[in-house]
């Protein structure tokens, strides 16, 4: 059974059909990229996975259970984490504190935040936070406030905040947008490494170098419809994809 099963999803905004009969299966342990031109419906689809939007019709099953109608925090607690296009970190807190919060929130629910400073001093929680910061290459900066980080490092911190929750499914919305080539390369390496943990990933990305170096499978959206799906080699060779996307502005 696929970890994420999207069946016949439709979504319209005031008469504009943003998603039209979308089907998508994401297999456990894979990196699945969703690509397509601007306005194709990628963010709308991702928002249907995290409870920010509900499909008008169709189903979204995660681990066999429906996500439709669940609140974002319920979907998060079920094991789905998301890295946003614009990093969402707690600017006034240290990196270590930023990574500690999601651990406690995931484990103990929202009440954990009240007791966060006291619990944050616990050794097991601190050790886990340190371990994850090491993984993303930010351990040396752990005492720094997050607001002072570069955009690329904020994204790495946000990734750490997701990884610490030990999600089954990680959704990455343009993880390298706005990054320099060097930072993009670093992020590709990092995402490859965290693949070794068997976290299933869905990635929306315009940068084809990122897509082709990470994805096992690729779904191509155009005007709200999946026009092609396959492995990177077949997607590269697909004439419809070249016309709709690869030959366009993001080639
Ligand atoms: N909240 C909304 N209200 C009205 N229209 C919307 C809304 N969100 C998205 N749309 C429209 O739905 C269509 C799909 O948009 P969406 O943002 O999902 O595309 P995208 O593939 O993510 O594009 P991009 O690559 O530019 O981020 C677009 O025509 C967009 O204008």
Automatic annotation (TrEMBL):
<feature type="domain" description="ABC transporter">
    <location>
        <begin position="4"/>
        <end position="248"/>
    </location>
</feature>
<dbReference type="GO" id="GO:0016887">
    <property type="term" value="F:ATP hydrolysis activity"/>
</dbReference>
<dbReference type="GO" id="GO:0005886">
    <property type="term" value="C:plasma membrane"/>
</dbReference>
<dbReference type="InterPro" id="IPR003439">
    <property type="entry name" value="ABC_transporter-like_ATP-bd"/>
</dbReference>
<keyword id="KW-0472">Membrane</keyword>
<keyword id="KW-1003">Cell membrane</keyword>
<dbReference type="InterPro" id="IPR027417">
    <property type="entry name" value="P-loop_NTPase"/>
</dbReference>
<dbReference type="InterPro" id="IPR003593">
    <property type="entry name" value="AAA+_ATPase"/>
</dbReference>
<dbReference type="Pfam" id="PF00005">
    <property type="entry name" value="ABC_tran"/>
</dbReference>
<keyword id="KW-0813">Transport</keyword>
<dbReference type="InterPro" id="IPR051120">
    <property type="entry name" value="ABC_AA/LPS_Transport"/>
</dbReference>
<protein>
    <submittedName>
        <fullName>Methionine import ATP-binding protein MetN</fullName>
        <ecNumber>3.6.3.-</ecNumber>
    </submittedName>
</protein>
<dbReference type="GO" id="GO:0005524">
    <property type="term" value="F:ATP binding"/>
</dbReference>
<keyword id="KW-0067">ATP-binding</keyword>
<dbReference type="Pfam" id="PF12399">
    <property type="entry name" value="BCA_ABC_TP_C"/>
</dbReference>
<dbReference type="InterPro" id="IPR032823">
    <property type="entry name" value="BCA_ABC_TP_C"/>
</dbReference>
<keyword id="KW-0378">Hydrolase</keyword>
<keyword id="KW-0547">Nucleotide-binding</keyword>
